[in-house]
Amino acid sequence: MPLFVIQVRCSHCSEEHPTGMVLKLDDGPLAKESVATFAGDGPIPPDLRILNSVFVCPLTGQSYRPESNDHVLVVPSPYRL
Ligand SMILES: [Zn+2]
Q1: Distance between CA 72 and CA 56 in Å, rounded?
Q2: How many angstroms separate the alpha carbon of residue 14 from the centre of ligand 1?
Q3: pLDDT digits over 6-45, tens only?
C-alpha cells in the first residue's frame, strides 16, 4: 500500500514543512495535493483532520496550526507497506 507524508504550509515563513506524519492511503493522490483538493466535496478522511494540531516552524521556532485544509498537503512517498 502506498505511503504518503503530510506537509503543512507554515503561516510564519510560508514554507512547506514536514509534519512527521506518514499515512497509508489506498487511493491517495498521484502528486502533491492539498487535503481540500483531495477530499473534494466528500468528508475529510479522519487521519487528515489535523487543523487543530500544533506544529513548530523549524526556521522561526514559533508554533502554528494549519490555516485551512488548503495548507495541509498530501505528498506521495517512494515507500510502500
Ligand atoms: Zn515555517
Answers
A1: 14
A2: 6
A3: 999 999 999 999 999 999 998 899 999 999 999 999 999 9
